[in-house]
Amino acid sequence: MSEKDSEKTAKNGEFSEESLREIAVEIVKRRLALKIHWTAYLIVNIGLFIINITVDDSYMWVWWPITGWGIAVLTHSFNYVSYRRGLFNSARTTLLWYHIFFAILISAFLHFIDNFTGSTTSHWWYWPVIPILLSAIVNIITYYVFKPKKNEDTRKSYIDRKVDREMKKLGI
Fold it and tell me: How many separate domains does the chain show?
């Protein structure tokens, strides 16, 4: 926390009115940007869908921009909701949740591609999804192994926290 941030918080750890106002302004801006993004997504994709079915409905190419842009708009939504709810209190937590979010999203997208391209005999999407999901599981495990305990400084690295504990044992 910078000096400017610490000046904005009261001594009892609560946020000052000024800092709460800044957070509220940021939430309003993010909500407006998200509404604009969703509106553009819906209008453009409805238009593309109409073009696709009126010009040539033998191949539904419209699903590619819908899913590709859908990944972006879902990511934007996840970012807004996580900020709004205050889910992330550290960079480590943020990275963990984004890793999980993208692992699920990419896995679903690969499954969609496999089904949309008409692969009925070989479901190739399993092969990239298995390591993606395994890496997310490993990330979750390492997060909880290296996560600071309740009374430890969250700004210190895992090694620094271990050294501090060892020094306490030594009486230093």
Answer: 2
Considering just the CA atoms, what is the radius of gyration of the chain in Å?
Answer: 23
In terms of domains, do 49 and 61 share one? yes
Same domain, 92 and 82: no
Q: Positive or negative, the Cα torsion across 34, 36, 39, 44?
A: negative
pLDDT per residue as tens digits for the range 87-118: 666 667 777 888 888 889 999 888 888 888 87
Distance of CA 154 to CAs 3, 73, 89, 109, 123, Å?
Answer: 18, 32, 10, 35, 43
* Percent of the chain residues topping a pLDDT of 90: 22
Helices (H), 59-90: 63-85
| Domain interval for residue 53 | 1-86
**In the predicted model, what is the mean pLDDT of the chain?**
82
Beta-ladder partners of 15: 9
168 CB neighbour count, 10 Å cutoff: 9
pTM over 0.85, yes/no? no
